Amino acid sequence: MKKALVCGAGGFIGGHLVNRLKSEGYWVRGADIKENEYGNVNSDEFVLGDLTDPIVAGKVVEEMDEVYQLAADMGGAGYIFTGENDSAVMHNSALCNLNVLDAACHAGVKKIFYSSSACMYPEYNQLDPDNPKCSENSAYPAAPDSEYGWEKLFSERLYFAYQRNHGISVKVARFHNIFGPQGTWKGGKEKAPAAMCRKVAEAKDGASIEVWGDGKQTRSFLYIDECVEGIRRLMESDFSGPVNIGSEEMISINDFAKMVIDIAGKDISIKNITGPTGVRGRNSDNDLIREKLGWSPSLPLREGMEKTFAWINEQRETALLVKNEQQ
User: What are phi and psi of 265, to 5 degrees?
Assistant: First the structure.
């Protein structure tokens, strides 16, 4: 039985990845600074600890065949692009990577996966919302639009340096806006799909929801199941990456909001306000993943959003019911 460590198992993607590995017969150890807030904790062993501590990192990698390093200090645009959390994002995420990678190398781990982000792509290639360029070979000259992106780029180079110098097999993927059930949907760290679902779920007919920016900025969003499928295919391949794991179904944020409103069956208008938005356009370029893995994501955005809205709406209704019972 193979043994795998999922760092960040208390998070959204990590929780789903644990489930996938378990379904494939792995013995799985999860590690995170927090437990999954929605109970998605199905690892054989869960270590509650801070991976910025090298002692914790050293302990969790022991006797592991594979490591999946997803732990990071992150959040949505409201957390990443205000500038208020830059030092924490860079310090905490970099330490997690430095500690886990070095410990894994010394422990004789055979293979390690690192979750990078599309946020590392140059801002100058993403100024046109209709024609962003996010092919893997467009990363340099480097010019990410956030410190979060700069840390991701540094850590990519860190992993490949260890592969060159120490022989550990490294796999690097650049995620593009992963969403789905059992992810953060309130509190300030939620990402656009969850935030949009929450706003629409809370709004009454005839009301409006606020959308940051002019709404013409574009993105693509990838459903969680396809993200996990991409991770596993990359880990089982002979390709190291970096490779995009994302959808090529680009949509403007206003149109995205209209999609969620339609899914909810509500009569709601959109009010565009000033707020952090990131780059003007971003869309996954999947030419490389098709070439190297013979696969690319294909689930329609609306199908994933229908599942996500239903889950978030249920969470909201349950929370309201509990609140009313306590009053």
Answer: 70, 35
Cα(245)–Cα(66) distance, integer angstroms: 20
- Say if CB 3 and CB 20 are below 8 A apart: no
- Whole-number Å distance between alpha carbons of 142 and 153: 8
* Element of type H or E holding 245: strand 243-245
Counting Cβ atoms within 10 Å, is residue 152 exposed (0-12), middle (13-18) or buried (19+)?
A: buried
pTM over 0.90: yes
- pLDDT cut 90: percent of the chain above it: 87
148 is a catalytic site residue = yes
Start-to-end CA distance of the chain, whole Å, equals 50
DSSP state of 62: T
Q: Is the pLDDT of residue 285 over 90?
A: yes
Question: Comparing C-alpha atoms, which of 78, 95, 80, 6 is closest to residue 42?
Answer: 6
Architecture of the domain delimited by 3-179+222-245: 3-Layer(aba) Sandwich (3.40)
Which of the following is catalytic: 148, 159, 162, 223? Answer: 148
Query: Which pair of tokens denotes residue 187?
Result: 């509190």
Which string of DSSP letters, residue by residue, matches 90-133?
Answer: HHHHHHHHHHHHHHHHHTT-SEEEEEEEGGGS-GGGSSSTTS--
**Checking DSSP bridges between strand 218-219 and strand 251-252, what pairing results, if any?**
antiparallel
**Could you tell me how far CA 168 lies from the centroid of its own chain?**
24
For residue 79, what are its two tokens? 């957390």
Q: Which amino acid is at 244?
A: N
